Amino acid sequence: MKLKFMTVASKQFNNEVLRAHNEYRRQHGVPPLKLCKKLNQEAQQNGSGLILLLSFKQCLLRTGQEVADRWYSEIKNYNFQQPGFTSGTGHFTAMVWKNTKKMGVGKASASDGSSFVVARYFPAGNVVNQGYFEENVLPPKK
Q: Ranges for the SCP domain (predicted)?
């Protein structure tokens, strides 16, 4: 499926995604992220680097909060007793990765009418740093 990065993520949408990320990160006791203009551009232009995709049909107008909520919901599949990368938890672990400092957001549309939200994180952690999950993916504070 070919993606066309024509649907530009608005500043408001990007800020919603960032705000939701930082609310979740606060629950895990990790520092907030900053939006990075360069990462936004890269995510928007070609989705290079660490990409997290959320597919949805264009008729469903999703807010940045809903996108972040959907990614974060993978926490239910994450085992804090056995930390590490598992299929189905990559969005969640990327969101709360303690050593990540910046993020970028992009939107794309596909030829079949689906839309995608792309997030890019720097430094990326949950894929390249196997074995570091214990210190970077902290359980939520009670």
A: 12-129
